[in-house]
């Protein structure tokens, strides 16, 4: 076999394996949505961080339309190279000096402070665009996690009305790793309540970005509209 033939059969085996995992994820999402009874649409965001552009191409070939990355520096070359139109989600913490790059994403999930709101708003205005954002909420109060406390959401919601270049679309949350089911349900329900707070303040905040490989079924049962799956689709990350 020539080198190029073996490379292409390896890459099609990879694409096949990823497509099977995408199907499995979709089936499990659909079943969880039926169990939960919220009747929402659920977008599968494939988290390609630490994986190469072939991961992006493989999920796109499997019909995925949305991909997520943690870092702007890592996303930009993949976005340029992948050769397919996708919606790009920025899901990791954003440093304010990266705001200009961050506003190029289709949805920023990680608006976690007043100061970042100011920076993103200015960057979006400079770029002549509206930037769609989710407020990252830290409802479990874990020290290690970014995000605003539930009690701070109402004040931030008011402040965000001054940011005319930001569109607040909902919330994102990360549940504690390896928590029991009852706690996970509580975290997701509390996050859902934070989105309600945003709506009560007048924002068009219908997005609930919650659920990762270990907890997405419970998140969907609790109303998630976006799940962010990395490990389930691509296997364990090296770093
Ligand atoms: C890495 C990451 C994910 C994906 O996590 P998996 O457990 O690999 O599915 C989802 N959301 C955020 C914010 C992440 O950083």
Write a short abstract of this structure.
By secondary structure, the chain is α/β, with parallel strands linked by helices.
List keywords for this structure.
binds pyridoxal-5'-phosphate; 239 residues; 8 strands; 8-stranded parallel β-sheet; 45% helix; TIM Barrel; alpha/beta; 9 helices
Structural notes for this entry:
With 239 residues, the protein is of the alpha/beta class. Helices cover 45% and strands 17% of the residues. The protein has 9 helices and 8 strands. Strand 5 (131-137), helix 6 and strand 6 (166-173) form a beta-alpha-beta unit. The longest helix has 34 residues, at 3-36. It starts with a helix and ends in a 5-residue tail after the last helix. The structure holds pyridoxal-5'-phosphate. Residues 47, 49, 70, 91-92, 174, 212-214, 228-232 line the site of pyridoxal-5'-phosphate (PLP).
What layout of secondary structure does this protein have?
Blueprint: H1 3-36, E1 43-47, H2 53-61, E2 66-69, H3 72-81, E3 87-90, H4 99-102, E4 107-111, H5 114-126, E5 131-137, H6 153-160, E6 166-173, H7 181-200, E7 207-210, H8 216-221, E8 226-229, H9 231-234
Parallel strand pairs: 1-2, 1-8, 2-3, 3-4, 4-5, 5-6, 6-7
Helix pairs in contact: 1-2
The CATH class designation is Alpha Beta
Order of neighbouring strands in the sheet with most strands: 7-6-5-4-3-2-1-8
Annotated CATH homologous superfamily: Alanine racemase
- SSE pattern, N- to C-terminal: HEHEHEHEHEHEHEHEH
Strand content: 15-25%
CATH architecture: Alpha-Beta Barrel
Radius of gyration from CA coordinates: 18 Å
Bound molecules: pyridoxal-5'-phosphate
- Report how far the terminal alpha carbons are from each other: 33 Å
Here the CATH topology equals: TIM Barrel
Tell me the count of domains.
Answer: 1
Oligomer: single chain
Sheet/helix structural class: alpha/beta
Q: How many extended strands?
A: 8
The helix content, as a percent range, equals 40-55%
Reported for the largest beta sheet, the result is: 8 strands, parallel
């Amino acid at each position: 076999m020539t080198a190029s033939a073996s490379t292409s059969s390896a890459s099609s085996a990879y694409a096949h394996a990823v497509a099977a995992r995408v199907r499995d994820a979709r089936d499990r999402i659909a079943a969880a949505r039926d169990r939960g009874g919220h009747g929402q649409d659920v977008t599968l965001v494939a988290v390609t961080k630490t994986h190469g552009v072939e991961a992006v191409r493989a999920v796109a070939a499997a019909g995925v339309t949305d991909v997520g990355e943690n870092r702007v520096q890592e996303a930009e070359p993949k976005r340029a190279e992948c050769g397919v139109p996708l919606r790009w989600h920025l899901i990791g913490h954003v440093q304010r000096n990266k705001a200009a790059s961050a506003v190029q994403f289709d949805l920023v999930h990680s608006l976690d402070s007043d100061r970042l709101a100011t920076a993103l708003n200015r960057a979006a205005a400079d770029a002549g665009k509206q930037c769609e954002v989710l407020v990252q909420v830290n409802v479990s109060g874990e020290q290690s996690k970014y995000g605003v406390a539930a009690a701070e959401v109402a004040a931030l919601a008011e402040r965000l009305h001054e940011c005319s270049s930001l569109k607040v679309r909902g919330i994102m949350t990360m549940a504690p790793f390896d928590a029991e089911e009852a706690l996970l349900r509580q975290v997701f329900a509390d996050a859902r309540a934070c989105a309600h707070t945003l709506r009560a303040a007048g924002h068009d905040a219908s997005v609930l970005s919650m659920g990762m490989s270990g907890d997405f079924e419970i998140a969907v049962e609790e109303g998630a509209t976006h799940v962010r799956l990395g490990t389930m689709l691509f296997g364990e990350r090296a770093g």
